[in-house]
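hey can u check if this looks right to u? its 309 residues, i copy pasted from the old doc so theres a chance i mangled smth
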Amino acid sequence: PNGGVIKFVIDQDLWPWLNYHWLGRIFRIYQGEDNWKFEDFKILYSGRVANFSFDAVSNLASVETTDASIDLDEVLVKDLYPEEDEFLEAIQGKPKPYLRGTVYSIQPVLEDDVLALYRLSFGKTLNKIIEVRVGGVPWEEYTGSSTPGPGQWKGNLVGGYITLGSPTLGGEVRCDARSIDWETYNSGKLIKEIIESSGGIVDETSFSNFEILLPGLIGYYSIDPIHKLDVLDEIVFGSGSWWEFGPDGKAKVGVLESPETENDFDLSSLNIKSFSLTKIIPPVWRIKVEYKRNWQPLTNPLSGVTDSE
């Protein structure tokens, strides 16, 4: 795919190698002289095997290569609701909620319609449930020891869920909440957490500089089977930044910068051999970034909801 194809001849006495599992394995490219010891060779590139094929007639093996992003080609949330009768049929087999940082207007998952139990986060303790709204109308938080009453909600920060004190009457439930370590979740930390959760390695210097240039706090919420690669792309798109795997196999990040105002090199008819353009790309003068993403806009607010609500 993006790393090119390596082709080489395999002698018949090495054919047993073909029985090994090659997909996803690490490969490295070294450079050195014939008389060097192996430990003196310089590593140029570290990637992954994306595909492997072999022609027994020509003894030619072809290895399609890619970078370490293949390790991230998996879903963000592997914990799914079991397909058992104790869970509502609507959520069976679906991912459990993933919440990091501070999030606004998220749609919690209804786990128990009898107890009116809605889950906001799984496996991540909450710091605070800022507000709960039903049909656009804020409900009152109940902090007592018994069950909440009509128009009230009660939160369980460790469990990551809320219970409502009365039926919603068709109103959509929306919540604002933050995870326990919300004040540390900037773009760099979230990207690093996702990459390392798949066994990836990050360039610590790159990420340290990134957090200095882009310290702003963010949040992320998902209840869908989204892939980690797509999540990383969403994060950098919303923060005017980029991410990649370098030749050493380590993940790097950076902030998009404005073009230099002065030319470093003058081009003219004296040093241009050939020149052809279908169009001229205008310089970047504005980058759209996100602020407090609204995950689930209301589509069916209750009657009587005011403009401010």
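The mean pLDDT is 90.
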